[in-house]
Write a structure and sequence with these properties.
The complex is a heterotrimer of chains A (427), B (192) and C (332). Chain A is α/β, with parallel strands linked by helices and 427 residues long. Helix content of chain A is 43%, strand content 17%. In chain A, the strands form three sheets. A seven-stranded mixed beta sheet of chain A has the order 3-2-4-5-7-6-13, sandwiched between helices. Chain C has one domain: Thiamin diphosphate (ThDP)-binding fold, Pyr/PP domains (Rossmann fold, 3-Layer(aba) Sandwich), CATH 3.40.50.970. The radius of gyration of chain C is 19 Å and the shape is globular. Chain C starts with 48 loop residues before the first helix and ends in a 7-residue tail after the last helix. The chains are: A alpha/beta (427), B alpha/beta (192), C alpha/beta (332).
Chain lengths: 427, 192, 332
């Protein structure tokens, strides 16, 4: 049924349709609306047979999910940013134990400095924890991916995180097609655990594993994700057959067939990218884009196939490998092993900075002329950066960087020496 | 694509306005995208919300930088630099005010009387009168409907009835209807 | 069922001799049909109080629940010595997740059972003092305040033993650990620090809180059984001497545990909804020195000259407990 609802609500409805039996979460912007929606559905009875647990921290949320999943029920939680980091130990634990938990990440930047707006630094921090990571381009896809996620997780006995851009998707009202219960039931059968805590058949889960077996256990986890490279497209195909629309899969290409320049991005950013690709195509530029949906497992072969014919690749990242540059770029580069083409990393949208068509237009034109640096920070305010560096060169006790920059932006002060920057200090 | 940017203060239903607008467009069978400019929300702080309406799926995710219509739910924001940034000549501007365009000297802010199609609406008063709450969003949207470009009044009414419980909905419908009539007359006058 | 408190006065033997009792009055451990939930073959040290306490506690819980129990274990000695890959000595469904989340994982298991309508299966979370009073404290409090149907058992050996005897918030004052060495002006753990988790549990007003000792194993079994008869959050705090960490003889474990109780340093009591409802009076009062002298972790108090000041402070703590919990046995 078509509805015009908030992204979070769409996801909550999708989760409810998947008949979770335990939902636990701790509030954090911007995912809160999702679990609030679920909590209400449990309380008013529209989501029956589900326990909703208000936990005392994100660490507790993932831990409750571990217990619940190990006891054999379909389990769901959601978090963002700092919350994901707070549960990091348990995130790794869940993957290591092979528990098919599904979690939504409402992508939000990680502090310091504290920032509530969207970027991908949170989910990227957990990219090697052993979870499958799927990125949604639209709220429709966010809704659809959760349905696919439960199937995927339970088939592989591997937890899955569905990433959707905080605020941009979570808080946006869009048209979505919410499937009916029968459709979802047909796609997501009841959970049959591979391992379960059951007095009738006792097992010990979570034993210590020493050097003699650890490597094998880890190899099997890696192997599982490699198998997912097949399972993910299979499920996406089945989803398309049953629900009538394309959603998920490993990657999606847009006008890449004869493209000289290909832009790679994750999540909602792809919408704006595609708009700009169309504009530039009208102007005769051979440009296309690739949206990576499955970031873990990283679809090396699919990305290679999509990019191999291009002259240059621009990887647009909403995350930063501090001291290195790109994170997504690493995967893209690996996929192009042996193929020579110009690769550019563009760091954009950090901490929720809007990525405008205008900026992308300039960027893509620069890329077209190969006039880009290896790593570019889109829309970087170089004046502010230069002034801050000047300040730091001039004195030792320069105070917190973030505050200094904010003050500069707020007052428009051109001062670059410490004395002018701290008028209240009288020497 | 029709793009609307709504300015107001926290507590004036700016975000709800964008959502209602999008639902109205949805009920007309069109695609709509509504989202707030996300800031630390507190009562009284300036807030913005955006809405895009189109016949085809909307892929663009940037804030509305070139609005076709601007709704200003709080006239004290008129002083804010950048309020009209990106407005295309001939675009629609709706301002919540009991004063007329001339009385409020709005030309001072818009850079002239003819640049845009401007309409002032006593939205807060209409809301107070019909709904009993000083939340101006519904009358402002109805005024927008009067220009006949974004959404139809009927769609807005249907969206209102979908969102609010019956009694509250009907009061809002009354406010909308009144605002629509007022704006249509004013718009006709302005065009003349 | 009529409950009769049975006291055993044994000399010379360590058997939990039940042969003189009716079958239904016998200890769980005396039962040939006991579940042996923590089976032999685990790698605990000789004289490990925790292994003893866990075996008694879990078997008692299994009997109380008709063998329908799921155990959640925090990281620590118990978890490590009971599951040396590729073996496990557990004969119950058992899960080990992390160090600080046993209570939360148990809450999750309980929620799953509720969702499945399986209210016949019960949940125990267990961990050492480190995993309970420090790193697991947040999750413990969360489980308490939600009143989740979990019995949390803390095996308190008063330090992080598995990692090499470091101080925890359960380490008593003056005790030597690797991070509170017996050097300097204030040797051993600092006075005035530490947490009393049973009292914190009581502050949450959960249905049942109790302390127990491996010196009184029938009492321990009784308390576990009583706990399993109750629904909601329950907490059991068991003092379990650690020969290695305490520097005591492996065959002194029970003696030391008994002295901890009989000096007043470790009061035995039960509390319901925040109020103490039962206590075990001390039959033979002993001065704290008798307890301290058996453990090398207190050896620095008995140098030349002895540290009378600190010993007196410890005695004062014991005296305060006896007064507070009314542990002086009234002469018949």
């Amino acid at each position: 049924m078509l509805k015009q609802i908030e992204g979070s609500k769409a996801v909550a409805e999708a989760i409810a349709l998947c008949r979770p039996q335990v939902v636990c979460a701790y509030p954090i912007t911007p995912q809160t609306h999702i679990v609030e929606g679920l909590g209400e559905m449990v309380k008013d009875g529209s989501l029956a047979g589900c326990e909703f647990i208000n936990v005392e921290s994100e660490f507790a949320a993932m831990s409750v999910a571990i217990g619940s999943s190990a006891a054999g029920v379909r389990t769901y939680t959601a978090t963002s940013s700092q919350g994901l980091l707070f549960m990091a130990e348990a995130v790794y634990n869940a993957a290591g134990l092979g528990l098919p938990i599904v979690m939504t990440i409402g992508n939000r930047a990680i502090g310091a400095p504290i920032n509530i707006w969207n970027d991908h630094s949170d989910s990227m921090s957990m990219r090697d924890a052993g979870w499958i990571q799927l990125y949604a381009e639209t709220n429709q896809e966010a809704l659809d991916l959760h349905i696919q996620a439960f199937r995927l997780a339970e088939e592989l006995s591997c937890p899955v995180m569905v990433c959707m851009d905080g605020f941009i998707l979570t808080h946006a009202y869009e048209r979505v097609d919410v499937p009916d219960q029968a459709q979802v039931d047909a796609f997501v059968p009841p959970y049959v655990p591979r391992q379960v805590l059951d007095p009738a058949d006792p097992v010990s889960i979570g034993a210590l594993v020493g050097p003699e077996a650890f490597t094998e256990v880890r190899y099997l986890a890696h192997h599982k994700q490699l198998r997912a490279l097949d399972t993910i497209p299979q499920l996406a195909a089945q989803f398309e057959r049953q629900f009538g629309r394309a959603s998920g899969g490993l990657i999606r290409t847009y006008r890449t067939e004869d493209a000289a320049t290909i832009v790679v991005a994750l999540g909602s950013l792809n919408g704006t990218v595609q708009e700009e690709v169309d504009e530039m195509r009208l102007a005769g530029k051979r440009i296309g884009s690739v949206s990576i949906c499955s970031f873990r497992p990283f679809p090396l072969a699919a990305v290679r196939e999509a990019l191999k014919g291009a002259q240059r690749v621009v990887v647009l990242e909403k995350c930063l490998a501090v001291g290195l540059g790109g994170i997504v770029s690493d995967g893209v580069r690996k996929s192009l092993s042996g193929i020579a083409l110009n690769g550019y990393t563009v760091i954009a949208g950090l901490g929720g900075r809007a990525i405008t068509r205008e900026s992308l237009r300039r960027l893509f034109h620069d890329a077209d002329r190969d006039a880009l640096e290896q790593v570019t920070f889109l829309d970087l305010n170089t004046d502010v950066v230069a002034a801050e560096l000047d300040r730091e060169r001039a004195a030792r006790r320069t105070g917190p960087t973030a505050e200094a920059i904010l003050r500069r932006l707020a007052t428009g002060s051109p001062a670059s020496t410490v004395h002018e920057g701290r008028p209240w200090l009288r020497r | 694509m029709f793009q609307i940017r709504i300015h107001g203060r926290g507590g004036q239903g700016v975000v709800s306005a964008a959502e209602l607008l999008s639902v109205a467009a949805f009920l007309e069978g069109r695609h709509a995208q509504a989202f707030p400019s996300f800031g630390s929300e507190r009562m009284g702080a300036p807030v913005m919300a955006f809405c895009r309406i189109d016949a085809t799926p909307i892929r663009l995710r940037e804030p509305v930088l070139t609005p076709d219509a601007l709704i200003v739910q709080d006239a004290t924001l008129l002083h804010h630099a950048g309020l009209f940034r990106g407005m295309q000549a001939g675009g629609i501007i709706l301002i919540n005010s009991t004063r007329t365009f001339d009385e409020a000297d709005i030309a001072r802010f818009t850079g002239g009387a003819d640049r845009y199609r401007v309409c002032t609406v006593p939205a807060t008063e209409l809301a107070q009168k019909h709904v009993g709450r000083a939340v101006p969003n519904v009358p402002m949207l109805a005024a927008l409907a009067a220009f006949g470009e974004a959404i139809a009044l009927d769609s807005l009414v249907a969206a209102i009835r979908q969102k609010f419980p019956h009694a509250v909905a009907e009061k809002n419908v009354a406010a909308a209807t009144a605002a629509f009539a007022l704006a249509r007359d004013t718009a006709q006058v302005a065009h003349a | 069922m009529v409950e009769t408190l049975i006291k055993f006065y044994q000399t010379g033997t360590f058997t939990v001799g039940n042969r003189l009792l009716r079958e239904d009055q016998r200890a769980v451990q005396a039962d040939m049909q006991r579940t042996n939930s923590l089976n032999s073959g685990h790698r605990a040290c000789q004289g490990c109080g925790e292994a003893l306490g866990a075996r008694y506690a879990i078997d008692a819980a299994m009997r109380a629940t008709g063998n329908r129990l799921i155990a959640v274990n925090a990281t620590g000695c118990l978890e490590v010595f009971s599951t040396p890959y590729p073996e496990s000595s557990w004969q119950v469904p058992w899960i080990h997740s992390l160090f600080g989340n046993a209570a939360a994982v148990a809450s999750g298991v309980a929620a799953a059972l509720r969702a499945q309508g399986r209210d016949d299966v019960r949940v125990i979370a267990q961990g050492g003092d480190g995993g309970t009073t420090d790193i697991g404290f947040g999750c413990l409090s969360g489980m308490f305040e939600r009143n989740d149907d979990v019995l949390y058992i803390c095996y308190d050996n008063e330090a992080y033993m598995n990692t090499g005897v470091q101080r925890s918030s359960a380490t008593p004052p003056a005790a030597r650990t690797a991070t509170t060495p017996a050097v300097g002006a204030s040797p051993g753990n600092v006075f005035g620090t530490g947490k009393n988790v049973p009292r914190i549990a009581m502050a949450h007003r959960i249905p049942y809180v109790a302390t127990a000792s491996v010196a009184n194993l029938r009492d321990l079994e009784r308390k576990v059984t009583a706990a399993m008869d109750i629904r909601g959050a329950r907490y059991l705090h068991i003092l379990v001497p650690c020969p290695l960490g305490w520097g005591s003889a492996p065959d002194d474990t029970i003696r030391i545990a008994r002295l901890a109780v009989e000096t007043g340093l470790f009061p035995l009591f039960e509390a319901r909804h925040g109020e103490v409802t039962d206590r075990t009076p001390i039959r033979h009062r002993h001065p704290v020195e008798e307890y301290l002298k058996l453990q090398k972790r207190y050896a620095h108090l008995f140098g030349c000259p002895p540290d009378h000041g600190r010993i007196a402070l410890l005695q004062a703590m014991a005296d305060r407990n006896i007064a507070e919990y009314d542990l002086a046995e009234v002469a018949a």
